[in-house]
Amino acid sequence: MRRLDGTTAIVTGASSGIGAATARMLAEQGARVIGGARRVERLETEVALALDVTDPESCRAFVDTAGPCDILVNAAGLALGREPFDRSSEEDERAVFETNVNGLVRMTRLVLQSSLREPGHIVNTGSIAGRWAYPNGATYIASKFAVRGFTRALREDLLGRDIRVTTVDAGLVETGFSVVRFRGDEAAAKAVYEGTRPLSADDVADAILYAVTRPTHVVVDELVLMSIDQSSGARVHRRAAD
Ligand SMILES: NC(=O)c1ccc[n+]([C@@H]2O[C@H](COP(=O)([O-])OP(=O)(O)OC[C@H]3O[C@@H](n4cnc5c(N)ncnc54)[C@H](OP(=O)(O)O)[C@@H]3O)[C@@H](O)[C@H]2O)c1
To answer: Which residue's CA is the nearest one to ligand 1's atom 47?
Structure first.
């Protein structure tokens, strides 16, 4: 695996789950990692900066302070609620789109315009929710379809530049994600993974590291990762308890 010594990586959403695991693995591979999240006290990166991707001023200050970088991993994201669309709220819809779509697009634009060196690499954490719909997740699903569309468009617009773009689209991953989705209800969050062998944050970070450490002319365009117990957005096999 190619070492990343001498490179700088920005990881958004580095305070938990996939972002935290990715930040750690990039650092182990030699990168200087700048992590961003709202809960700055949870960041364990070499450089830890407060970042709220929904706030343009926060994003601008983050990118200015971070300085030049070679890798951007857009891992900040969330889902809120798990109900049929006609029972969902506009407030949740705004938060999800502001974070997953506008926040990711905003950070990508700022980094591209002011700090990404070439050869550079942008990695988006999409989701299998950006490939298949499942019941009771319309807002989140729509946001991840948008991320996939944006990633494809970015590949087109950056053709001819020395900038790779990758989307890593995972299925069930056991992180803080479901606790946030169920607003702190740990039992409801746990039930999502019950009877399955879900992916871990490290499994997804490992896939991101794979993409980043290929030779710089090799683009890992899309990586789709699922647990052995999942076959699509809506189909999960639950094993009986022993
Ligand atoms: N878990 C899954 O099953 C799964 C599957 C496929 C894709 N994904 C995607 O993977 C990404 C990471 O999720 P995860 O599973 O690692 O969940 P997680 O453990 O809840 O981590 C989410 C991260 O996003 C950050 N974040 C949320 N809102 C933010 C904001 N406004 N500004 C800056 N950072 C913000 C959180 O930090 P703060 O709260 O400290 O700001 C946290 O570090 C998300 O985009 C998610 O959609 C997850």
So the answer is: 77
